[in-house]
Amino acid sequence: MLLSYLSPAQGFIYADNKEDHYQKVTTWRQQKDADYKTPGKTMLTEALLAGFAGLKYYPVDYSYRVTGKLTKFNDGRTFTMQTTGGQAYEYLVYARVDFELQGKSLSLNVYQGKRAAASGRKQGALFIPFYDETSANETYGGGRYLVLDLPDNDELVLDFNMAYNPYCVYNPDHSCPIPPRENYLPVKIAAGELMYP
Questions:
Q1: 157 contacts 13 by C-beta, under 8 angstroms
Q2: pLDDT-above-90 percentage for the chain
Q3: What is the structure's pLDDT at 9?
Q4: Beta bridge partners of 164
Q5: ∠ CA 65-69-73 to the nearest 5 degrees?
Q6: Which of 18, 57, 176, 191 could pair with 64 in a Cys bridge, judged by C-beta atoms 3.0 to 4.6 Å apart?
Q7: Does the pLDDT value for residue 160 go beyond 70?
Q8: Residue of 115, 97, 114 lying closest to 106 (CA atoms)
Q9: Is pLDDT above 60 for 125?
Q10: Contacts for 112-118: CB closer than 8 Å, 24+ residues apart
Q11: CA-CA-CA-CA torsion sign (158, 159, 165, 166)
């Protein structure tokens, strides 16, 4: 399940100032920790849950909240994403988002699950798996994820403070999509969730 634990943060990316943004990200992280400590909600194995003291994150950094330009693909193109469990899932390639970060021009492919597309759901409908220069060093080697709402225009706010680890980091019973090569960012994204423990 890709979208669990995202609902407490819906709308935070529209924060107008650093203070509001910091508070909303911090609140979301606290709620996620609370959920991870709760049997029935947690993604942790029993062994990890026994000693769980909270997930690890980079400090909240407003400079990692950027607005990108969307180039939407309305031709029904798809991409088959492999998973850590050996399965493959087909996603719609919704768009490419181009943005500036750390003085570099970057881009990522934006995906949408076929079920989300068919339902017309807007909240949590877009999926961006990615690697960056922290992967396999400070963050999980298999990349991290962003889940975003469908925008009302051709701009997409990317907040890497919300980048999170696949659930297979915490429990090998989860099968997680592997980011495609196209979604490698040649910069260090020092924001979001760190490797755990």
A1: yes
A2: 79
A3: 42
A4: 145
A5: 130
A6: 191
A7: yes
A8: 97
A9: yes
A10: 113/2, 113/89, 114/90, 117/92
A11: negative
Residue 197 lies in a domain: no
Domain span at 122 = 7-183
Averaged pLDDT of the chain: 90
The token pair that represents 9 in the structure block: 């943060």
Tell me if 140 is assigned to some domain: yes
Q: Is residue 115 part of a domain?
A: yes
Q: Would you call 121 exposed, middle or buried from its count of C-beta atoms within 10 A (0-12, 13-18, 19+)?
A: middle
pLDDT tens digits, one per residue of 92-123: 999 999 999 999 999 999 999 988 888 888 99
**Amino acid sitting at position 45:** T
Q: Considering the entire predicted model, what is its pTM?
A: 0.90
Residue 137 has pLDDT above 90, yes or no: yes
**Cβ atoms of 128 and 135 closer than 8 Å:** no
Q: Domain count of the chain?
A: 1
The alpha-helical segments, DSSP class H, found in the chain are: 18-36, 46-50, 114-119
Instruction: Return the beta strands (E) in 51-87 as ranges.
Output: 65-72, 78-82
Residue 194 placed within a domain? no
Q: Which residues contact 141 (CB under 8 A, 6 or more apart)?
A: 135
